[in-house]
Amino acid sequence: MNLTLKVWRQSGPADAGRMVTYKVQDVSPDMSFLEMLDVLNERLIIEGDDPVAFDHDCREGICGMCGMVINGVAHGEQRATTTCQLHMRHFEDGATITIEPWRAAPFPVVKDLVVDRSAFDRIIQAGGFVSVPAGSAPDAHSVPVRKEDADSAFDAATCIGCGACVAACPNGSASLFTAAKITHLSLLPQGQPERVTRAKAMVDQMDAEGFGGCTNTGECTAVCPKGIPLDTIARMNSDYLQANKK
Amino acid sequence: MKFVEGPEIRDTKAPEGPIEERWEKRKFAAKLVNPANKRKLNVIVVGTGLAGGSAAATLGELGYNVKSFCYQDSPRRAHSIAAQGGINAAKNYRGDGDSIYRLFYDTVKGGDFRARESNVYRLAQVSVNIIDQAVAQGVPFAREYGGLLDTRSFGGAQVSRTFYARGQTGQQLLLGAYQALERQVAAGTVEMFTRHEMLDLIVADGRARGIIVRDMVTGEIERHVADAVVLATGGYGNVFFLSTNAKGCNTTAIWRAHERGAYFANPCYTQIHPTCIPVSGEYQSKLTLMSESLRNDGRVWVPLRKGDDRAPGDIPEDERDYYLERIYPAFGNLVPRDIASRAAKNVCDEGRGVGPGGLGVYLDFRDAINRLGRDAVEKKYGNLFEMYERITGENPYDVPMRIYPAVHYTMGGLWVDYDLQSTIPGLFVIGEANFSDHGANRLGASALMQGLADGYFVLPTTIGDYLAAGPFGEVEEEAVAEAEIKVRSRIERLLSVNGTRTPDSFHRELGKLMWDYCGMERTEESLRKALERIPELRKEFWENVKVSGTAEELNQVLEKAGRVADFFDLAELMCLDALVRTESCGGHFRAESQDADGEALRDDENFAHVSAWEYSPERVPVLHKEALEYDYVKMTQRSYK
Amino acid sequence: MASSNGKKAVMAVTGAVMVGFLLLHMLGNLKIFLGRESFNDYAHALRTLLEPIAPYRTVLTILEIVLVASVVLHMWAAISLARRARQARPVKYVAKKSQAGGYATHIMRYGGITIALFVVWHLLDLTFGVVNPKGFDSAPADRMIAGFDLSRWWVTLLYLVAVVMVGLHLRHGVWSAFQTLGWANRARYKALRATASLLSAVLVVGFLAPPLAITFGVVK
Ligand SMILES: Cc1cc2nc3c(=O)[nH]c(=O)nc-3n(C[C@H](O)[C@H](O)[C@H](O)COP(=O)(O)OP(=O)(O)OC[C@H]3O[C@@H](n4cnc5c(N)ncnc54)[C@H](O)[C@@H]3O)c2cc1C
Ligand code: HEM
Ligand code: HEM
Ligand code: SF4
Ligand code: F3S
Ligand code: FES
């Protein structure tokens, strides 16, 4: 396959950035999207150019490090797939592909397609945990958990913190990410004591970071590689309102 | 490569007495740190995987002043996140006869009698607390309808002791540790440094006193000093270029510590996982693991005839070779990892492999689908089939999967004593980065257990014993400056070569060389060839590598080049270690040492020891042996026939 | 209330108030089919509600105040959330493709502004009679029947557009309010969406029936 890539290049936070066009030849349909970029980068290095910087690590869809907006869709149009798991066989020979970084004020561009997602860590710091120092835990069987609750908690807990939800949301909201963690912990007995304080602290932190508010447009779930469901946001809202009632 | 033999290691600091009481004894004997003093004690933890994340969080909870480092943009992304299968613990919730002793026994045997008894026993003891801790944190382990935790048997274990969270156990455990860590960041006890890569260890007055790191965003070289340093930087399987490890996994942190005096133990012990998706082309950047559980229902086969290139469906039953069932009738498709991997390699070497380059064997679900029905198979393996199809574009319901072994885990690592302290006082090493608990072969679901045991329970106790003598005062400027200059000049050197080959192309070549000569099967000849070839390639690297960009920016080529450079040195030591160990054991198979049936043959007489290598700048490493003694298990030859 | 979630809750609650008003308003409007008298009586009754306990127009004024407050708060929240959203994405995408239809994104804000403009016109027309052929000092039913005369077909058209906009706004809005207030969950989504669509449809039909009937001469 031969492709034309339009890639966002930005040398650093101070640079305004621009789209740059590259041609890549002999792309195998079995390549992953990142391997296709590897090929481009190998060439750029040899030519003495700066290769395109992008984040990645596990390359198996679990670490949440990779992510770019491909043809206007976070992680590309293939559903429930991270960028590293997207394969070239889903593109047509001769196609033009635009590649941009996540765009959100709380995710400033570091370089090219690399953005700073530390805002997510700070949202977790605000309360995304159960306070239990090592060694103080009771026996694991002392608190049974309904299987249904454990399963739903798990569905929410699979969030990989990639940030695609923010990238896709027309409001630049981090609601799905935040709600996923709140839901995970709020469905389990272990998460109960801190449930409402957690929701309030995390939502307030999300605001403080400069993310937008959710207007329930559902773009986030549609691109989420882990299919985090939308009702996590309802649960977050419920816990949050409860916190403010008190 | 030459080497010399140095004095044996005699004291590992394991307490004497009955094995069940040793850990209690050690805990009680450990000196305590006055709570008021803890704030004044600084600890650096490099790595935020299960080991480092849990350690930093726990040390923070205890009141130490912790700095935590990782090279990713968030601690949550450490490669522990990728572990699928599960975590072992001797809870005996099933009442199926499991016990601490049995877990201990299975682990020692699985490791082919090359692990330390005291350490493994402690691991089995502590395993129980890990599950309690994780559940209390909200880790959503699989449960049964009664609300209690579900377990399964894994990797051929005869008891059901593996706790799991669908196929994402590592992720859920790591998120638990990560959340605990972030809680301490919020509390101010832990300061987090993401996108920081450790490039050297500061040793002053014979103690580990800090690290030199590069801020990967600005390129700034920073010095961080402390009273103790903990390395939890994971495994080095990426020396093979293609492995199931994340792209960033590296040996840099432990290798530089090795250069500063920490012994490197058993570098040649590498685990090859039998069920990975095979390489599809030259561009391949990493290999993906398919859960071992697939072998419960899938049947492994290759064509009987060499070069048979018919579509699998067109090959009649009597022209197929279900070789695992044929060679190992008792265990069939469920033989342990090392055995299944080697068998696959053998049939491919005979020219009977399938798929691109003949490097693959079929894992066929046809019979399972006929027997159980498509729905039942989908329920069990649906997500794995989907993953396979996503990557290969082939539908495993219609055509058999193709699988091939891939490098997965490294049992070797920095040598540590019972306290997890390396040969440099004040330098502790935990998780996959140390060598301690798995011997020559790791059982499935044991690495997560070890990482968390080290981080939540063992290290926080033993490091206190060391820190009780602290704080250790100012660090002499000379030592810090020396390390910093070394790091800077290395970076400058990499940038100044300005040759014609990318770091990746060197890494690929080194990886291939290691796979061919120091991979699943090693011979004296292949290892000697590798030892000849590696220095040549290293020389070419330092003369012809091309690193674009500058040091003062985010520069992924520079990062890569630095890691590849260290892999060369490590690769050499691995080959040397493999050459010296003329027996076969676990993940280390020397073709010269096999029985009549082609199975691994240990040589307990000469090799029941840990090989701990001391670095030498002249490239004449010093081998220190630590004898392994077994008082609680009997050494036997493994057999799966 | 200053948080984005707080603002959303404000929108949901004020939205609910407005929906309640619209339902009553629609029922009132339908009275036109029972004859001018019935409609005028209803308009009168509105103003004399709870008399003589409360003076003329007290209750109506209170209701109006609640309504105006709702409108103002609703718009305030909508505007500040929109501003927040703009600040959260200072650099736009070169290419952007919606994966959820983009319905809510487009309909809510622009639809809302359309509705607001309509209400202004509507008040000038039927409440204050400023732009109504019958002027302020006329019976409500007269204003209405004159206002939607066939000769003023464009007014009817305007109402048509506006009411459809309201319908679209509420099709997302009602469901959204449940989500915002945390009453939605996976099991209920289908039912909630259906309820929202049904409610919107009822309002659209109910509101459009009188003007269309007048324009086409069914009600004289
Ligand atoms: C695909 C896969 C599946 C697996 N499945 C299982 C399983 O089912 N059960 C099981 O028990 N085990 C499994 N394992 C093994 C297990 O996951 C790992 O051995 C274990 O998670 C390692 O944990 P760790 O904390 O030691 O290191 P890691 O999780 O690898 O963490 C390393 C940390 O060190 C940091 N780091 C590394 N180098 C530097 C540097 N130079 N400077 C700064 N920071 C650095 C990284 O940023 C990272 O935070 C699996 C492994 C793989 C690859
Ligand atoms: C009389 C008219 C109106 C009614 C009945 C109404 C009702 C509602 C309701 C029920 C919601 C859902 C609240 C939630 O999601 O929590 C909503 C949302 C919204 N409304 Fe209105 N509204 C009206 C007028 C307006 C006006 C005039 C504007 C414009 C400024 C507007 C803009 C919005 C916006 C932007 C939303 C957010 C979208 C969302 O929540 O998904 N609305 N409205
Ligand atoms: C198309 C059908 C509609 C008709 C025929 C209609 C008719 C009327 C009439 C006759 C009045 C004056 C009542 C009085 O003064 O007693 C009125 C008031 C009002 N209408 Fe409508 N209306 C329609 C649709 C709407 C819509 C869609 C909205 C809002 C989005 C709306 C909002 C209002 C408001 C806010 C008032 C003022 C109420 C008050 O002052 O108490 N109307 N309408
Ligand atoms: S909710 Fe989905 S899209 Fe958002 S960070 Fe988590 S995994 Fe990524
Ligand atoms: S896309 Fe945005 S508006 Fe809400 S539903 Fe998702 S956060
Ligand atoms: S690289 Fe880890 S999710 Fe894509």
DSSP helix fraction of chain B:
25-40%
Structural class of chain C: mainly alpha
* Percent helix of chain C: over 70%
Overall mean pLDDT score of chain C? 91
Share in β-strands of chain C? under 5%
Gyration radius of chain B (Cα, Å) is: 24 Å
Beta fraction of chain B: 5-15%
- The count of strands of chain B amounts to 21
The H-and-E topology of chain C, N to C, reads as HHHHHHH
- The CATH topology of chain C is 3 helical TM bundles of succinate and fumarate reductases
CATH C-level class of one domain in chain B: Alpha Beta
E-strand count of chain C: 0
The number of helices of chain B is 17
CATH topology description of one domain in chain B: Flavocytochrome C3, Chain A, domain 1
**CA radius of gyration of chain C:** 19 Å
Q: Indicate the overall shape of chain B.
A: globular
Quote the average pLDDT of chain B. 95
Largest interface: A-B, 78 and 80 residues
Organism (chain C): Nonomuraea montanisoli
Keywords (chain C): Membrane, Transmembrane, Transmembrane helix
Protein name (chain C): Succinate dehydrogenase cytochrome b subunit
EC number (chain B): 1.3.5.1
Which key features would you list for this structure?
heterotrimer, B: 641 residues, alpha+beta, Flavocytochrome C3, Chain A, domain 1, Methane Monooxygenase Hydroxylase, Chain G, domain 1, five-stranded mixed β-sheet, five-stranded parallel β-sheet, 17 helices, 21 strands, 37% helix, 15% strand, globular, C: 220 residues, mainly alpha, 3 helical TM bundles of succinate and fumarate reductases, binds flavin-adenine dinucleotide, binds protoporphyrin IX containing FE, binds iron/sulfur cluster, binds FE3-S4 cluster, flavin adenine dinucleotide binding (chain B), electron transport (chain B)
